[in-house]
Design brief:
This protein is α/β, with parallel strands linked by helices and about 375 residues long. It has 14 helices and eleven strands. The protein has a five-stranded mixed beta sheet with strand order 2-1-3-10-4, with helices on both faces. A three-stranded mixed beta sheet has the order 5-9-11, with no helix packed on it. Strands 7-6-8 form a three-stranded parallel beta sheet, with helices on one face.
């Protein structure tokens, strides 16, 4: 063999040895160091709200979904459909529990038929607490654990988050002002949750309808009166088109909140990071909703008076006092054979006694300040 041929074969062998070593080294490096992350298919979740798409409540559902989608950077995408897109509004709990939907946005009063105690979170005077205080009881006073127990008791395969404190809801929309308890007797009226029992006990003929069906029912004369929620929702749903009388203040739903639900099997399968984002998004959406509500509701309240010809009346104190008395009878009857109902009510009562005393002793009377700045009459013009 010639020397040049020998040198050439040695060179090729050396090159092959080097390439083999490099390949082995690359494999070892791949095991030793994390690979660069590649784009993954985002997790998709299909939600439905219990609200018509035009309602501000559906907007709140979209706001929550956007917060989750933004904070996960697209790793999780929640799509929110309006009421009826997959199931009727009152069918949301079953659809989420079965996995027909991955989650939903609604209110607990719509689940009243499953277990009356569930509606204690949304119906009635809540011992005087506003909705934000009810959320405080839910998170820090034992309410959350009781709700888990309630849903487990009815076999609901869901994870529940409460959010969005609502202001006191109006007594409702009527053909003429309601001034006394007797005015409700025989009245065909819409409400939901334990308020059904309250108004029934006060003499009304109650029909529970989802939000999108109320105004059409009033327009056709199937209802003499109805309540839904707030100035913006009521205006968007068309209440001023079928009634010009709205009675403000009532104890039937003075502290309602929204509920965001997830199918428990699908929620439990999420990474811890996404669960943490969801939990924090719920609270962020809750705060944002309460701020948006002040802005939007106050605008629509003014607009309904200025442009829609609506007359708002304060519900007389005597009627409010009658509601409290009847409510005591309703809850006593409901709790007589429902231990969980009594357990929830007792927990809420204990928290309210402490929190309400602090609240009333600490916070200023707002009407005093309002009257000082905005309620003063202009000085009379001097005579020439």
């Amino acid at each position: 063999m010639k020397k040049d041929d020998k040198d050439s074969k040695q060179t090729v062998a050396t090159r092959r040895k080097f390439l083999g070593s490099a390949a082995a080294g690359t494999g070892a490096a791949a095991l030793a160091f994390p690979s660069i992350a590649t784009a993954q298919t985002p997790k998709q979740m299909r939600f439905q709200s219990t609200w018509p798409s035009k309602d501000i409540f559906h907007e709140y559902a979209l706001d929550f979904a956007k917060k989750v989608n933004d904070m996960t950077g697209g790793e999780l995408k929640i799509e929110v459909l309006p009421a009826g897109a997959v199931v009727p509004a009152f069918g949301l709990l079953d659809a989420v529990s079965k996995g027909t939907l991955d989650g939903g946005h609604g209110v607990m009063g719509y689940n009243y038929g499953k277990q009356a105690a569930i509606a204690l979170w949304t119906s009635g005077p809540a011992f005087g607490m506003d909705a934000n205080m009810v959320l405080a009881w839910h998170k820090y006073g034992g309410g959350k654990e009781l709700l888990v127990e309630l849903y487990k008791g009815i076999g609901a395969n869901i994870v529940s988050f409460l959010t969005g404190p609502m202001p006191t809801q109006p007594l409702g929309w009527f053909k003429k002002p309601v001034t006394k308890k007797e005015d409700l007797k025989g009245l065909k009226f819409r409400t939901n949750g334990l308020a059904i029992d309250l108004f029934t006990a006060m003499g009304a003929a109650v029909n529970a309808l989802p939000g999108g069906e109320i105004v059409p029912a009033m327009d056709r004369g199937l209802l003499d009166g109805a309540e839904f929620n707030n100035a913006s929702s009521d205006r968007l749903l068309g209440f001023p088109d079928v009634s010009k009388i709205c009675m403000l203040q009532s104890f039937h739903q003075s502290s309602e909140t929204f509920e965001v639900t997830f199918n428990k099997t699908k929620y439990d399968a999420l990474p811890a990071k996404l669960k943490a984002i969801i939990e924090n998004a719920v609270e962020a959406a809750s705060a944002d909703m309460s701020w948006k509500a002040v802005d939007r509701y106050s605008k629509d309240y003014r607009e309904m008076q200025a442009k829609d010809g609506v007359k708002f009346y304060k519900t007389p104190d005597a009627l409010l006092q009658a509601q409290l008395a009847v409510w005591d009878e309703v809850v006593a009857k409901k709790g007589a054979d429902n231990p969980l109902f009594k357990k929830v009510e007792a927990s809420m009562r204990a928290f309210a006694e402490r929190a309400m005393k602090w609240d009333m002793d600490t916070n200023n009377p707002r009407r005093m300040a309002y009257n000082h700045y905005f309620g003063r009459k202009a000085p009379a013009a001097k005579k020439a």
